[in-house]
Amino acid sequence: MIGDGVTGLCFTFETVKRQCPICFFIIALLCVNVHAQPSGDYLKFGLGYSYQTVLDQAMSPVSYSGHFGQLSIGYSSQNEKWLSELEIGGNGGLQYPDIGREESSRQTLSLLSRLRYTLVRQWAEMNQWRFYTGLSSMNSFDFRNHSNYVNSQTNYLALFALGPSIGVQREFSMLKRRWGLQVFTDLPIAGYYLRPGYIKPFFNDEVGSKGLVWWGEFFQINTHTDLIYYLENENQLRLIYNWEYLSLEPLNKSQSGTHQFSLCAIFKF
Fold this sequence. Notes:
The chain is mainly β. The chain has helices at residues 2-9, 13-19, 21-31, and strands at 40-56, 64-78, 82-97, 108-126, 129-146, 154-174, 177-186, 190-195, 209-214, 218-230, 236-248, 254-268.
């Protein structure tokens, strides 16, 4: 009986792979050989899809959601200690009210732009994971034109924010190929915003509402997860998922949540 019990506890990678593919992937990620970290300068070009839900009291008491197409370009540089990344992205699509969508013809033509710059330094390495901390500048401009409004159809939100950034990196082998994983989180603590006001909603001589905001008056978090496939010539393919949440309190409260998926080609030069 004891022998049977011991036999029952024994397993192989083939058993795990067959019965629990997710567990097999995790075990393989922890056990595979690790390559040296990449270094150099890279250009990035990406295509993707995004989905956003926004509740902006300057536009409507009802939240709007919609699908977007996405384009992005970027530049990154990495050495043994430092990593810097610059990314510029644009999204375009239509958003519809989340209440009474079928019975209403209301919609907004929405254009979203993002510019993110991150400069971080490696401060630790543990079990082949590299840990980074530094600063990130997150700049966004969301423009919406409402189809059913006449005197206040234009709505916008510009925010220029700065705060800490933390992240991890790791290279690994899977299926006899070289892969990488990179995860970063940005959490700004200060920003400057531009918004419509009750009296001045348009782009006239002055912006309706603007000013400096600190943590508590606004909250923003961005996460960036990259699955990296390394090519033979040190170029890369990346599958990227970004999640962004923003809440801005002054005057007309605005809240938005955005999911972004993109496939990017990275060229070393």
